[in-house]
Amino acid sequence: MCGFAGLWRPTAASAEELEAHSRAMAAAIAHRGPDDAGVWCDPAAGLALAHRRLAILDLSPAGHQPMASASGRYVIAFNGEIYNHQALRRELEAAASLQQSWQGHSDTETLLAAIEAWGLAATLRRCAGMAAFALWDRHERVLHLARDRFGEKPLYWGWLQAGGQRVLAFGSELAALRALPG
């Protein structure tokens, strides 16, 4: 099933605070992914992503999330399945659009490579499947929250007050948002 959660503050935050909050959010949805857990933080951006993994397509550590793209520009926390990810891989390989060789067999890695090659909007038009994700663009400093067209994979988000400032919280379940103070 997998699950992800995260938060973004308009101002910088300490790495310790971001990590503690995102770990609490991930712990609230631990039942969604018993196989692995991960946290990624960018304190200067005030952003944290957390993930709980149920390994299905790639059982190796190469499927660990949050996952960074080959260039390091994008970081994603992803829940779902891209049904045509093998076809997308072949298309990327045929066009020589890859910046490096594949590290594993996950659709998450395919999604990131496609976003680097074609951009987010074009990639989403090409994808067939069910998914929700949080994608951080480290160059543009933009957070994208997206879900499949029919909403098969949930994505909850909202603005909360925490420590006197607004925080954007998001995740696969409301329980992840409730784990934040405020």
Give a topology summary:
Blueprint: E1 3-8, H1 15-28, E2 36-42, E3 47-53, E4 67-68, E5 74-82, H2 85-94, H3 107-118, H4 120-126, E6 129-137, E7 142-147, E8 156-162, E9 165-171, H5 174-178
Antiparallel strand pairs: 1-3, 1-9, 2-3, 4-5, 5-6, 6-7, 8-9
Write a brief caption for the model:
The protein is of the alpha+beta class.
What are the main properties of this structure?
single chain; 182 residues; alpha+beta; 5-stranded antiparallel beta sheet; 4-stranded antiparallel beta sheet; 5 helices; 9 strands; 26% helix; globular
Descriptive notes:
This protein is an alpha+beta fold and 182 residues long. The chain is built from five helices and nine strands; from the N terminus they run βαββββαααββββα. It has helices spanning 15-28, 85-94, 107-118, 120-126, 174-178; strands spanning 3-8, 36-42, 47-53, 67-68, 74-82, 129-137, 142-147, 156-162, 165-171. The chain has a five-stranded antiparallel β-sheet with strand order 2-3-1-9-8. β6 (129-137) and β7 (142-147) form a beta hairpin. The radius of gyration is 16 Å and the shape is globular. The two termini are 28 Å apart. The model has no long low-confidence stretch (mean pLDDT 90).
